[in-house]
Amino acid sequence: MNKFSRVLFVIAAIFSALFGTAGSSYASMAADAAPAAHAVSTLRVQADLSAHAAGVAPSAGGRLRSAASTPFECSSTVTSASATVSYAAGSPGELAQVAWVGGATATCTAPMLAMSYQLSAIDPQSVSHPIAVGSCAGCAALTAANTGYTCLHNRQAGTDCSGAWQISAKVTYQAQPGSTWTSVGANCSVAGPLLTCAASVPAGTAKLFNLPSLPDCSTTAATATTAAPAAGSMQRIAAVTACYNLPPSKIFPYLGDVAIDVNIRPYHFPGGTHVDDTKGLFFSSVTDSDLAHIFEAGMMDQGNWTLNSSNYYEKTFPYSGVGVRSVKFGNSLPSTQVTLVVSKFTDDIITMYPADA
Questions:
Q1: pTM of this prediction?
Q2: Are 268 and 168 part of one and the same domain?
Q3: Which among 109, 125, 160, 264 is least surrounded, fewest beta carbons within 10 Å?
Q4: So what's the pLDDT on residue 63?
């Protein structure tokens, strides 16, 4: 895959004793995500998914007596759950794919009538995709083998791999007839001799664009550079620096599906449902990747952020060739600047549009 710049997105290698033995069980998940644009290179998520499973089997004579019964315990462990996130070449490259692999084991101190395990990656649309599965009968040990899952990102075709992912695990133990489960955890349920344990945890976020990892301009001395022309007819005309000029909140805004599909395109593209004569419009030829270039230029621009009347931070920066001014205030003349508006408290992008100034 030499056309992609690959970024390792390690989601979890350890769910230590995910549904473990009585008295000792702990689980955690670690995620090494694509480096965040505000210079945070690693995301780690810790989650306690402890559960306890213990029971007693009937004696050889088939009658369950506390004095003659045989105790047993069961546990399970996720041995791997990770994804490699790949981006298209260039900066900022759009997400290309999220490729998952996984594995798990389940063991008991006595043979079960049957056992099964399914480890899944849950995509940002809440659809579950198995990445490791296994089952066995009359066994005391089970290995869930990697099946893998690759999400091929193509927003135009309706497949969106960007956003928050989760990992879920489900294990079932069918104990011998007449057995009783005496101790189970919060993540488990019992139906006679059948024990089912299921849990899920956050696994990190696959960003829509792989923006370069640069420092905050307010804390790091920057080296002046000149922005290269963007694709097509667009051209950045401002001198920028090799750092990001964060808003006063010091939160790096996130350019994702909501920002593009809900907050920008319906208001500032021809044919948008909320377009009127007061709004500057991007050319219809401007793509999502073009918007990412514009956003990147805005974040690197050294102009001041101001608090507007709606209590949002905004700034206007030089950027030509991407759209026109509003009909009412700019006579639909070519715009030479773009305004970026962001939330005061979160990473939400409120809007971005060709400015009238």
A1: 0.74
A2: no
A3: 125
A4: 37
